[in-house]
Design brief:
With 187 residues, this protein is α/β, with parallel strands linked by helices. It folds into two domains: 2-146, 3-Layer(aba) Sandwich (Trna Endonuclease, Chain: A, domain 1); 149-187. The chain is built from five helices and six strands, in the order ααβββαβββαα.
């Protein structure tokens, strides 16, 4: 509950009054550090989503892939290709996560999005890199283009369209969305 309230505050006030830094090396993470890490990740996601929209792409956050993994952002570009963006809020976040490598199989290009304080030298060179500063994004390194197979692209496009349309419908009629979710939970 606290995290949701803070996430909503972050959307209204993108610059919180407390620092968004990970714990010092050797120090155990406190509950406040976890909230801080979540806020930091939220800021990076927001900037990356804005970058996608300004590029004319259609971004969707947390889209479940057929293998049940969820990249932070999948964007459909104006030429019909798919870009996956994986947000990393701290070195610990990157070092503890190996699932991002699977995302290569589900996109034409793969990027990491990090903020200015992230130590970029730990990231692999064969993945694109976006660096955020508040709501601004700089493309530091373009991602290599690895074309999806036509059947995989078709399956991904269908999944993308269904999810995006469902989310739009839920915004239009939140009561119906709750009823559908409740009915699905009963099955």
């Amino acid at each position: 509950m606290v995290l949701r309230i803070l996430d909503r505050r972050l959307l209204r006030h993108p610059t919180p009054n407390f620092p968004l830094t990970p714990p010092a090396p050797g120090r155990k993470a406190s509950p406040m550090d976890k909230i801080t890490a979540a806020l930091r990740a939220n800021r990076i996601v927001r900037a990356a989503m804005r970058h996608c929209a300004l590029a004319g792409w259609a971004p969707v956050a947390q889209m479940p892939l057929p293998d049940s993994r969820r990249p932070d952002i999948i964007a459909l570009t104006d030429d019909g290709s798919f870009v996956a963006i994986e947000v990393k809020s701290s070195p610990e976040d990157y070092l503890s996560d190996e699932k991002w490598q699977v995302y290569r199989d589900w996109c034409d290009q793969l990027y990491f999005a990090v903020d200015l304080d992230f130590p970029r030298e730990i990231l692999p060179e064969d993945v694109g890199l976006l660096v955020t500063d508040r709501l601004e994004v700089e493309v530091i390194r373009e991602a290599p283009y690895l074309r999806l197979s036509p059947p995989r692209r078709r399956a991904l496009l269908h999944r993308f369209a269904v999810l995006a349309a469902g989310r739009l419908a839920a915004l239009q009629d939140p009561d119906a969305a709750r009823e559908v979710n409740a009915a699905l939970k009963l099955e």
